[in-house]
């Protein structure tokens, strides 16, 4: 009944992962969070006078750019992505055979997922927030050619860039703005989320400060993106009096829960450049 099985534990509920969950699946964001966590634990161990070597070893492995490439670089799409048992060509049909291609067409009988091709083990090739985690959590080496490609893709308006912030999923994805079930509209399939934009802006700020061949490129994108996010949230607040859970990638209009001063309040840190 789901276009793509949910991954609630990631926090990115309906972000498109591999279409057929399997124990061999690899999630890029999980790897990056574990890298960050092991680094934090190593620092805590040092502060309290405990042995930090085990955590440091894990951190070293998880931030190894060569290993990251081997496990998560999609050489066909030239992006970082998840890996798993996946098929791109998927539709949902009603019981009477009508193709469901938007939320308005869903009905209680719309429950049949049809996979047009056999899934294979491969990189999913899906470009969105998950692809940016090596930048967001500052795992990429500052001289990595992957960083240059990521920065270039980040600025493309037909992919993730908008004048309101970075959208959650590329406009070219077959899952862009697609509803996942009869009752669930898209969440992480196009909308702009401020917590993720905070992490992206934080990563850009980092790469604009450390020496490397892409320092100026990161700095220019950082300045422009920071301005776009702050201005749109301020504009929507002035118009409607609220901070919102998420923002529309086409109009910039706030949507979802409101008033929402949870992660969207990170705009204050963005304004203060506190990362």
What does this structure look like?
The chain has about 280 residues and is α+β, with helices and mostly antiparallel strands. Helix content is about 35%, strand content about 10%. Helix 1 (about 30-45) runs antiparallel to helix 2 and helix 6 (about 195-210) runs antiparallel to helix 7. It is globular, with a radius of gyration of 20 Å.
Keywords:
alpha+beta, 8 helices, single chain, three-stranded antiparallel beta sheet, two-stranded antiparallel sheet
The first-to-last residue Cα distance is: 40 Å
Uncertain segments of ≥5 residues (pLDDT<50)?
102-110
The largest pleated sheet is described as: 3 strands, antiparallel
Give the SSE order as H and E letters: HHHEEEEEEEHHEEHHEEH
Q: Which shape, going by the Cα principal axes?
A: globular
What topology does this entry show?
Elements: H1 28-47, H2 53-62, H3 65-72, E1 73-74, E2 79-80, E3 83-86, E4 90-94, E5 99-100, E6 110-115, E7 120-123, H4 133-136, H5 145-154, E8 161-162, E9 165-166, H6 194-209, H7 215-240, E10 246-247, E11 254-255, H8 267-272
Antiparallel strand pairs: 1-2, 3-7, 4-5, 4-6, 8-9, 10-11
Helix pairs in contact: 1-2, 6-7
Describe the structure concisely for a colleague.
The chain is α+β, with helices and mostly antiparallel strands. The chain contains eight helices and eleven strands.
């Amino acid at each position: 009944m789901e276009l793509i099985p949910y991954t609630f534990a990631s926090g990115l509920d309906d972000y498109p992962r591999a279409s057929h969950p399997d124990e061999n699946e690899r999630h890029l964001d999980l790897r990056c969070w574990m890298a960050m966590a092991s680094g934090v634990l190593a620092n805590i161990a040092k502060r309290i006078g405990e042995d930090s070597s085990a955590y440091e070893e894990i951190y070293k492995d998880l931030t190894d750019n060569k290993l990251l490439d081997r496990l998560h670089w999609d050489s066909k799409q030239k992006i970082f992505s998840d890996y798993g048992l996946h098929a791109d060509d998927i539709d949902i049909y009603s019981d009477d055979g009508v193709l469901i291609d938007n939320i308005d067409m869903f009905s209680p009988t719309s429950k049949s997922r049809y996979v047009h091709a056999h899934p294979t083990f491969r990189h999913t090739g899906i470009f969105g927030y998950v692809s940016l985690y090596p930048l967001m959590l500052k795992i990429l080496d500052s001289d990595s050619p992957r960083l240059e490609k990521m920065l270039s893709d980040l600025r493309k308006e037909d992919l993730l860039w908008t004048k309101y912030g970075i959208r959650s999923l590329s406009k070219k994805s077959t899952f862009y703005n697609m509803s996942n079930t009869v009752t669930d509209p898209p969440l992480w399939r196009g909308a702009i989320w401020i917590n993720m934009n905070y992490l992206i802006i934080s990563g850009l700020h980092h790469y604009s400060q450390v020496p490397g061949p892409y320092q100026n490129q990161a700095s220019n994108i950082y300045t422009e993106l920071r301005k776009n996010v702050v201005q749109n949230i301020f504009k929507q607040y002035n118009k409607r009096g609220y901070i919102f859970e998420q923002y529309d990638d086409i109009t910039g209009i706030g949507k979802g829960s409101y008033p929402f001063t949870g992660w969207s309040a990170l705009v204050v840190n963005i304004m203060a450049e506190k990362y």
